[in-house]
Specification:
The protein has 16 helices and 17 strands. By secondary structure, the chain is an alpha/beta fold. InterPro entries: Alkaline_phosphatase_core_sf, Phosphodiest/P_Trfase.
């Protein structure tokens, strides 16, 4: 089990460290000891776990050249895009920013909110009200830019986690040279600049085909080629940093436990959220301790099961604000090895091969490359 060292070696420390180098007020230290510069490009490759990239490094020749001086950091808990990108964007642990997983129950409305698709009338900027690093850097005169898919402009997740940067969108993900040129132009804006570039196809290949598939390895090669194309276009005074938001594990069909098909697991559970590797259970008509005990008895060493209070005490989410606490399930289950807890309430997840969200090394640890 990997419990993040919040405030020291997680994704939440990355942008605050860059902000300190860029002279943004309120940021005066860099826990990750990143190189000093006045221009930075940060590339986040969705699904780039450290174990995965090391295992397949022959498919990534550019990253291979950086591997000997690469370091590692961790995602927050759960190890999932929504939580990780909000840790990154706000510089805060999950218990402070409140984007607590792929899906979660909203205390005020009791709806299950999918933070990635944001099919809700809830205002993202009210739901996640903390300022972002981009907000503060822009206010301090740093030219901040996001380069990402055009359709993410103004999305719920963009507004909640990454607002404050000028958004420059592209439509063709395969146009690596065009994307690289956009990043390079953005890096030359102003006297100081910070560019965030997002690459998603590795994660999609893993979910759809698995991390051992030809498709996943091809997506890694493409992501590597994008990084090289960007570096080739950047001036020497620009420092480029590459990381991931989580890793991934392939889940065999016979290691998928469907909650609704198991009376012991389904008993006393009002709502189910989270994702297959990190289930959040909302318990309105039973004792959370009783539900947790049944899950522990049923799953044994296939999952780490905690009540919400136990997980908070163990430091899974960092310090948790009272206004955020009720977003977490009364019981949480982080699956071990290659097991998952599936729910028929979320048909979208039933067809996934690669999954993430739990506290294993394969999911939690991401690389930190600097060039």
């Amino acid at each position: 089990m990997i419990i993040p060292h919040y405030g020291a070696t997680t994704l939440a420390e990355l942008l605050p460290g860059l902000a300190a180098h860029l002279g943004v007020p309120s940021y005066d230290s860099d826990p990750l000891a990143l190189p000093d510069a006045q221009r930075y490009v940060l590339i986040v490759i969705d699904g780039l776990g450290d174990q995965l990239v090391r295992r397949a490094i022959r498919q990534a020749p550019y990253l291979a050249g950086l591997l000997d001086r690469a370091r590692t950091i961790t995602s927050g808990v759960p190890s999932t895009t929504v939580t990780s990108l909000t840790c990154l964007g706000t510089g805060m642990p999950p218990g402070r920013h409140g984007m607590v997983g792929w899906t979660a129950r909203v205390p005020q409305t009791r709806e299950i909110l999918n933070h990635l698709f944001w099919e809700s009338a809830i205002d993202p900027e009210a739901y996640q009200a903390l300022p972002t690093i981009f907000d503060r850097a822009s206010a301090a005169g740093v030219a901040t830019t996001t380069v990402s898919l055009d359709r993410f402009t103004g999305s719920g997740l963009t507004r909640a986690a990454l607002r404050g940067a000028e958004f420059r969108g592209f439509r063709d993900e395969d146009d690596l040279e065009g994307r690289a040129a956009m990043v390079a132009r953005a890096a030359q804006r102003g006297q100081r600049s910070l560019v965030y570039a997002y690459e998603r196809r590795l994660d999609h290949a893993g979910h759809a085909h698995g991390v051992s598939s030809h498709d996943w390895h091809g997506a890694l090669t493409d992501a590597d080629a994008l990084c090289r194309a960007i570096r080739d276009r950047l001036d020497d005074d620009v420092r480029m940093i590459i990381t991931g938001d989580h890793g991934m594990i392939d889940i065999p069909d016979d290691h998928r436990i469907v909650i609704e098909d198991d009376p012991e697991l389904d008993a006393g559970v009002t709502d189910v959220a989270g994702e297959g590797r990190f289930r959040q259970l909302y318990v309105d008509h039973d004792r959370p301790e009783a539900v947790a005990a049944r899950w522990r008895d049923r799953l044994g060493d296939r999952a780490w099961v905690r009540t919400r209070d136990e997980a908070i005490e163990d430091g899974w989410f960092g310090p948790v604000d009272e206004s955020i606490k009720e977003r977490y399930g009364h019981v949480v289950a982080a699956f071990r090895d290659d097991w998952a807890g599936m729910t028929r309430r979320m048909e979208r997840e039933m067809g996934l091969i690669g999954m993430h969200g739990s506290l294993t090394e394969a999911e939690m640890i991401v690389p930190l490359f600097v060039d």
